[in-house]
Write a structure and sequence with these properties.
Pfam families: Glycos_trans_3N, Glycos_transf_3, PYNP_C. Homodimer. Catalyzes phosphorolysis of the pyrimidine nucleosides uridine, thymidine and 2'-deoxyuridine with the formation of the corresponding pyrimidine base and ribose-1-phosphate. Belongs to the thymidine/pyrimidine-nucleoside phosphorylase family. The protein has helices at about 1-10, 15-25, 35-45, 50-60, 90-100, 120, 135-145, 155-165, 175-190, 210-225, 245-260, 265-280, 285-300, 300-315, 320, 350-360, 405-410; strands spanning about 75-80, 105-110, 145-150, 195-200, 230-235, 245, 330-335, 340-345, 375-380, 385, 390-395, 415, 425-430. The chain is an alpha/beta fold and about 425 residues long. It folds into 3 domains: about 1-45, Transferase, Pyrimidine Nucleoside Phosphorylase, Chain C (Transferase, Pyrimidine Nucleoside Phosphorylase, Chain A, domain 3, Up-down Bundle), CATH 1.20.970; about 75-155 and about 185-320, Nucleoside phosphorylase/phosphoribosyltransferase catalytic domain (Pyrimidine Nucleoside Phosphorylase, Chain A, domain 2), CATH 3.40.1030.10; about 330-415, Pyrimidine nucleoside phosphorylase-like, C-terminal domain (Aldehyde Oxidoreductase, domain 3), CATH 3.90.1170. It has a 4-stranded mixed β-sheet with strand order 1-4-5-13, sandwiched between helices. Strands 6-9-11-7 form a 4-stranded antiparallel β-sheet, with helices on both faces. Strands 10-8-12 form a 3-stranded antiparallel β-sheet. Helix 5 packs across helix 12 and helix 12 crosses helix 13. The protein is globular and about 65 Å long. The chain starts with a helix and ends with a strand.
Length: about 425
């Protein structure tokens, strides 16, 4: 291992055999954490070649169980988001695409820090179970074309251990390590094609378009080498997505989208991602046709019906679809007012995510319990005109005194007399 650390420290390329040896020995505890930490730091500073990062993904992938979904007919398509504030897209997207005949075996994650997790949001639906067995997961995708679950403990165990190590060694922000981590789990889930939603902006992991592009290219490159057809969209996270941040609030917004209502940005992005998935799943010959199919499925209620089916299949109460008030409700609602008139020219998206975390809606630590009812409903977004005293956002809380959090939310808004240029929702597409 010392030889391999030295080789990577000096900027050389590790071979497939070396990477496989390293991962095998790390998982079997023959390599200690301190040596793997040194290797991660060497990768952080010197990067990896395209083939090298793909081989790291494959080595981590084969460190545990790999799902075989061959018995499910059709091209299985999944979607992965790099995470953002108010990003609830997976929830309306999965039933929408499944309603059009594409099998969706979706393995999702939990939230940590200022970004929310799909599994936490779904668990705000009474009874919803994300911890299905491998057989239950496969059976649901085969029978009804969709399931959204957490990864089993036996899937890519090397990644789980390395991820925990990166968290405490300052090596999280490494594009080869991020890309190989994501792809080891996604390929292990047995999917045939992948759509990536790579967020860029002040509420995203990647703050600049340059970094987001590098990550998107790395993900698509690994997909190509794994024979997993992939496409990546760089999407805007310079403000929260939609008007809700918080678990049950985002489920209610997702239901609105499936009713062909809800905020335009969430609806537009859901349809654009659905179109990419339909083309990859060979259910549409072009993106234009696919967009029309997705719009029809929202309009005629097929997608909504499929969401009810998903909830029922996974032990939840489908009545929440017709009555979102059955979702957890916060005790207090506190308005945050605009201190001056003008236009919203900037939103500190990260700060709003942290505010929801401080209300109890997000985790500062991995094992923290969540309050599924709390969050924010935004009344003003980028480019919106405001008068002094207008409500910028409504805090949904289960504590009476949220004055410090209200001040934080107010400060997250920049109001100026000039009309701002609002960035496009989709920056670019990488194939």
């Amino acid at each position: 291992m010392v030889d391999l650390i030295t080789k990577k420290r000096d900027g050389q390329t590790l071979t497939q055999e070396e990477i496989e040896w390293m991962i095998d020995n790390y998982v079997s505890d023959a390599i200690p954490d301190y040596q793997m930490s040194a290797m991660l730091m060497a990768i952080y500073f010197n990067g990896m070649e395209d083939t090298e990062q793909a081989q790291l993904a494959f080595a981590m992938l084969h460190s545990g169980d790999v799902l075989n979904l061959d018995q499910i007919p059709g091209i299985k398509v999944d979607k992965h988001s790099t995470g953002g504030v108010g990003d609830k897209i997976s929830i309306p997207l999965a039933p929408l695409v499944a309603s059009l005949g594409v099998p969706i075996p979706m393995i999702s994650g939990r939230g940590l820090g200022h970004t929310g997790g799909t599994l936490d949001k779904l668990e705000s639906i009474p009874g919803f179970n994300v911890n299905l067995s491998e057989k239950e997961f496969v059976d649901l995708v085969q029978e009804h074309g969709e399931a959204i679950v957490s990864a089993s403990g036996d899937m890519a165990p090397a990644d789980r251990r390395i991820y925990a190590l990166r968290d405490v060694t300052g090596t999280v922000e490494s594009i080869p390590l991020i890309a190989s981590s994501i792809m080891s789990k996604k390929i292990a889930s047995g999917t045939n094609a992948l759509v990536f939603d790579v967020k860029v902006g002040n509420g995203a992991f990647m703050k600049t378009e340059e970094d987001a592009t590098k990550l998107a290219e790395a993900l698509v490159s690994i997909g190509k080498q794994a024979n997993v057809n992939s496409v990546a969209l760089l999407t805007d996270m310079s403000q929260p997505l939609g008007i809700t941040i918080g678990n049950s609030l985002e489920i209610a917004e997702s239901i609105a989208i499936l009713r062909n209502q809800g905020p335009k940005d969430v609806r537009d992005l859901t349809i654009k991602l659905a179109a990419q998935m339909l083309v990859l799943g060979q259910k549409a010959p072009s993106l234009e046709v696919a967009i029309g199919l997705a719009e029809d499925a929202l309009r005629d209620g097929r997608a909504l019906k499929k969401f009810k089916q998903l909830i029922q299949d996974q032990g939840g109460d489908p009545a929440v679809v017709d009555n979102p008030k059955l979702l957890p409700q916060a005790q207090y609602k506190i308005a945050v007012k605009a201190p001056r008139a003008g236009y919203v020219v900037g939103i500190d998206t990260n700060a709003l995510g942290v505010a929801v975390m401080q209300l109890g809606g997000g985790r500062a630590k991995k094992d923290a319990a969540l309050d599924l009812a709390v969050g924010l409903v935004l009344h003003k977004k980028l480019g919106t005109p405001v008068s002094e005293g207008d409500t910028l956002a409504m805090i949904h809380a289960n504590q009476e005194d949220v004055s410090a959090i209200a001040a934080q939310v107010q400060q997250a808004y920049t109001i100026d007399s000039n009309v701002p240029v609002v960035p496009p929702l989709i920056h670019k597409v990488i194939r």
